[in-house]
Specification:
This protein is mainly alpha-helical. It has helices spanning 2-5, 52-57, 61-74, 79-95, 100-113, 118-135, 141-172, 177-185, 188-198, 204-207; strands at 13-15, 26-31, 34-39, 42-44. Strand 2 and strand 3 form a beta hairpin.
Length: 210
């Protein structure tokens, strides 16, 4: 414990806000005649917004993290630009020669900052699958997560379709081929709508009325 009291370290404050003029360099607190002041160096990420290409090429992991932060700010209303930027940063991860845990640690941060709409997330996943196949490095947690989501949605659709099939069979007898096809292709919202319509429908056609 005594040795720890005399150990030295370096403090650095990272400012990730959007206010160009806000640049604190000290902290002060006064209480009952006591005055505590801490002076610290600060880094403003906003200052690097013109260095995106340089940051993407920098081997320092914090440079990629900074690039992800700047991309997140710049693409708040540009989903396609965010997709392109996220793909670029992810490819950089695979080019660094880092270990799988190192890649995943930084990727989880990038993935958290650069969220995408569902359709573009699927497009991102397709690109990552190709990248992983070409590098023989299957790392990305986002791919695993989307795969789990797809599996969950598929399982939910199949369960709803099976339940509706049983209800239709009890009500109208064995369903014809066109009904089987609709149940296979129906989305969860469609299956839910058909189940509601089944309650009052007098014919099969009425169940599937749009």
């Amino acid at each position: 414990m005594a040795r720890r009291l005399w150990e030295t370290g370096e403090d650095l404050v990272v400012l990730a806000d959007d206010r160009p003029q806000w640049r604190p360099d000290h902290y002060e607190r006064q209480l009952w005649g006591c005055d505590l002041t801490l002076t610290f160096p600060a880094v403003k990420l906003l200052d690097d917004q013109g260095r995106l290409a340089e940051l993407e090429a920098d081997p320092n992991p914090f440079a990629l993290a900074t690039a992800a932060h700047l991309l997140a700010r710049a693409t708040r209303k540009d989903s396609q630009g965010r997709l392109a930027g996220k793909l670029t940063l992810t490819r950089r991860l695979y080019q660094r020669g880092w270990t799988k845990p190192e890649v995943l640690d930084l990727y989880e941060f990038i993935d958290w900052l650069l969220t995408l709409p569902e359709a573009l997330e699927d497009a991102f996943l397709d690109e990552i699958h190709e990248l992983e196949a070409s590098t023989n490095m299957r790392y990305i947690t986002s791919a695993e997560r989307i795969g789990m989501r797809r599996g969950h949605e598929q399982g939910m659709q199949q369960g709803m379709a099976l339940t509706l099939h049983r209800l239709l069979r009890r009500r109208f007898g064995e369903p014809p081929a066109w009904v089987e096809a609709k149940l296979r292709e129906g989305t969860p919202p469609q299956l839910e709508q058909w189940a509601d319509q089944l309650l009052d429908a007098e014919t099969l056609e009425a169940v599937f009325k749009e």
